[in-house]
DNA sequence: CTGTTAGCGCCTTCAT
DNA sequence: ATGAAGGCGCTAACAG
């Protein structure tokens, strides 16, 4: 291990004090321009690199923002992360990223690691099975800003970045009904997560508004994976009376379900109309193209990170507030059965 | 800001020294079991959390591994990152992630930030236009392990995790030739990156082995984006004599190109057979399904991170070595023109 | 404008 | 088995 240059080495060489070197290296106003140049040049020449561990300790701040997400490898989440990284990096913070792998246990242990690492703020999208947020209480107690995005949790101290899932789902469902669907299956995930319960509620609301009965046989709850879509198709095919519409809470599952039904001779959208959620890249590649709800992960990441950064840079002035991002219904062939739309 | 508990607070409360508390909190052998329990209990009760900034400074290690990638939001890269995160997290390291956004300039500035943050190792996949790795020299000089993956760079001190792009491209091209293609266009990106030049070389080799002429009019170089695929389709349609096969260096671009050609009345694969690279999720959704090269990003991330972690945990014993991961040709309808395959 | 001093919280000799 | 003391590198008072 090569010996690292410190500000003391620079100070010695220049016969000045370490304090002056420290000041010269930042843009402290009270340093002579000449000595400043001397210092910067010497630092450059000697290959000095500032030791963040030391300055972090001294300043009692880590310069790190933490992120905990269920999984990194989904199209949506990688967009979110990209957006977060951009904002955080531009603001000269660093990013600690970890994935809960959809379990509350891992989420809690990640949170603890983040806490010990003194992250200055934490961005979280919750795991499937997270029932309470006791594991985030230490952050709230310490007033370390905690922002939820997408898979949010209701808590007075924590702003949320999300879309209006209720409204979006109601729109999708209404659209299917407009297309003549009378018996619409809804496939979704753990209703503990508000993103899913809201979508479910929006769906039910639309049915109700059109005097369509909802009953439990129309609801399929799984993990919205690709495999789950295949299984759901199996369930649908076994139904005593086939549905004429399916609204799935994500595109991944919607597509595999739709393709499986196609293989079994079901015509999309004539026999069964389909709609998904997320506007995944695959949605406009699959045939027929999938009707879905579009909302940009990148923008959600940006919004969450911007909120955090603004807050950190101006702690006591800026009040953090929740943000509802725009989403839009994108109608494609998978649900188009008449010309009225 | 609430006052944080330190080992001194615990020491005071227990009327023992901070040194003993420090030892008790880890599994130092020379502490009485009883006092250890006392210490751990008191820490728990008082809400102590270890200050990593202080211990990092003292120990002269950051416990952080850095990652620099071109972009986070691609299906492949998010798989890689997921794999890296898993391994790094399990090994109790933290992950700093940043994206170069495909420019060498940003890559260099990210590298500098990583250096100042004292990352203990750096995992890198290079930007499109990175011509040399001078910006990584400080790592090499300091013997901070530097591992390249996917978009690698040849350097004696830096192991590489990659696939055999030459072989894979030769396989794809040979397959297209076997299907009767005689005039195969190759669409790729900056040949500065070995992943692309190797694929190009493999392609040329296959042509040569089958006595097919290569000439520059068969090569289209762009950024392999979706839009570039549309543009490439335009170029192809304008060619004096249409090709009967297209091999694209990624699936994203392959698919948009293929779909654009379809819209212009070209039959796939009868008129033009198609092959991509990466086995993106969209490849088996598009119609016709896209022939491609499959290799798992998740495994590449795991492999790179495992190499790094093993090295860090056993610095002077383990020699780092490059790893060539397996890849395989996946034949789908987009290239199937006869029954011989 | 620059120097002196005193920690930030932890860990690790060295001593007991 | 425990304590005392010094220092990791930096920076913010406080003096000059």
Automatic annotation (TrEMBL), chains A, B:
What is the protein's species of origin? Mucilaginibacter gilvus
Q: Which segments constitute the HTH lacI-type domain?
A: 5-59
Keyword DNA-binding carried by entry:
yes
Output the Gene Ontology terms for molecular function: DNA-binding transcription factor activity; transcription cis-regulatory region binding
Keywords for this entry? DNA-binding, Transcription, Transcription regulation
* InterPro entries xrefs: HTH_LacI, LacI/GalR-like_sensor, Lambda_DNA-bd_dom_sf, Peripla_BP_I
Q: What is this protein called?
A: LacI family transcriptional regulator
């Amino acid at each position: 291990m090569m010996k690292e240059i410190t500000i003391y080495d620079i100070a010695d060489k220049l016969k000045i004090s370490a304090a002056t070197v420290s000041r010269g290296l930042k843009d402290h106003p009270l340093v002579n321009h000449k000595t400043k140049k001397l210092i910067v040049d010497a630092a450059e020449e000697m290959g000095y690199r500032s030791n963040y561990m030391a300055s972090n300790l001294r300043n009692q701040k880590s310069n790190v923002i933490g992120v905990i997400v269920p999984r990194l490898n989904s199209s949506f989440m990688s967009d979110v992360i990209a957006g977060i990284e951009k904002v955080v990096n531009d603001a000269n913070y660093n990013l600690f990223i970890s994935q809960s792998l959809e379990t509350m246990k891992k989420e809690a242990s990640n949170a603890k690691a983040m806490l010990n690492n003194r992250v200055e703020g934490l961005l979280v999208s919750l795991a499937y099975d997270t029932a309470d947020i006791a594991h985030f209480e230490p952050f709230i107690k310490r007033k370390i800003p905690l922002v939820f995005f997408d898979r949010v949790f209701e808590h007075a101290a924590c702003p949320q970045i999300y879309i209006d899932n209720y409204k979006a789902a109601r729109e999708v469902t209404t659209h299917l009904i407009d297309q003549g669907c009378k018996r619409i299956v809804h496939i979704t995930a753990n209703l503990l997560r508000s993103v899913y319960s809201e979508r479910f509620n929006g769906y039910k609301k639309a049915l109700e508004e059109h005097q369509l009965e909802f009953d439990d046989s129309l609801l399929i709850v799984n993990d919205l994976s690709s495999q789950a879509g295949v299984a759901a198709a199996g369930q649908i095919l076994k139904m005593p009376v086939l549905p004429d519409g399916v609204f799935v809470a994500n595109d991944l599952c919607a597509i595999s379900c739709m393709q499986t039904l196609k293989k079994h001779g079901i015509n999309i959208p004539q026999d069964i109309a389909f709609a998904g959620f997320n506007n995944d890249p695959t949605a406009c590649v699959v045939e027929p193209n999938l009707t879905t709800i579009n909302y940009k992960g990148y923008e959600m990441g940006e919004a969450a990170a911007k909120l955090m950064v603004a807050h950190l840079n101006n702690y006591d002035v800026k009040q953090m507030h929740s943000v509802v991002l725009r989403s839009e219904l994108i109608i494609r062939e998978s649900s188009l059965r008449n010309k009225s739309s």
